[in-house]
Amino acid sequence: LLSPQDQALFRQLSLFDGGFSLEAAEALGRGKQSGPTSVLDGIASLVAQSLVQAVAEVGDEPRYAMLETLREFGLEQLAKHDDVAQARRQHASYFLAFGASMATRLHGAAMSQHLTWLSAELPNLRAAFDWTLTEGGDADAVLGVLAALTPFWRFRGYLSEGRRWLAQAMTTASSTVITRIDGLVAAAELAVFQGDHGSARTLGEEGLELARRHGYPLGEARALFLLAISAELGGNLDGAITL
Fold this sequence. Notes:
Helices cover 72% and strands 5% of the residues. By secondary structure, it is mainly alpha-helical. β2 and β3 (61-65) form a beta hairpin.
């Protein structure tokens, strides 16, 4: 009973896992409707027909979601009527860019708010990471985002998950040396804060060796810092001082 435009928007919105912001909906829904406020109007129409729900706000931004049964139906319709690979690629591209942008803001007084935004979009980030790593997307970009999000994995308690994603990305990506060093140091940091000092040393030493060989001073400094913290927490104070 929906208009063709609203049907197309409904299918596109079913890609979102765990809800979505207006900004994300506009990025993915652009071209499915026409007019300057078309995506917003389309969402309002879907809300009025109980196919989309306004569920919460993050900061001052409203969020929307679908019941899971409706979302499953939307995904079935997406497979019938649209280029699913292109739609997934667009979703992954948006959320990798979102993750990279948020990672640059994880400091200062607004850090808590940005951590909250990342938490709200974590299901979508997971979907973006998974699709990119399993479907042959830009695994190097995923590794860079995962490493940059280390404060999020730490401060929101996703240490094991962060390590799993980093390990998968480092296995999958034919990454540049700098990105691999960042991934190794990030994984070492998460290992340190889980008390896994053996893994932290292995990862940190590999990152340190690569950073020195390829002239990456920031990577070298971070690797030494993490190795020192690991040594200190493991009771090796002399080794920590040397590092």
